[in-house]
# Entry
Amino acid sequence: MELNEKIAVIGNSAMVSGFKLAGLQDFFTLEGKDAEEKLVQLLGDTQYGIIILEESILENADWRLKRRIEAIAKPVVVTVPSPSGPLEQSESLGVLIKRALGFDLMNKKK
# Structure
């Protein structure tokens, strides 16, 4: 099976380096408003299926951007805790995937 959609990573240098080591190729070492602008750009790019984002970037983002992310199914935006630790409880990866696919992957029928 070939993955047709790309995965992007936006965050600080430590976080991005970890994903670089994992083999991801589309990464952006940005913080603050620069990271928010890149996120907006990637949301409009149909080649990305998943955007991995440092949690603090989304936490500090404009409320309209947060609403947009909540309303779209693709790309899936997954937040990763900052080095200082996780912020508040966020949506689980399972919930994000369910929203993107329209069904629960983890709920197997026997």
Remarks:
- The chain has one domain: 6-101.
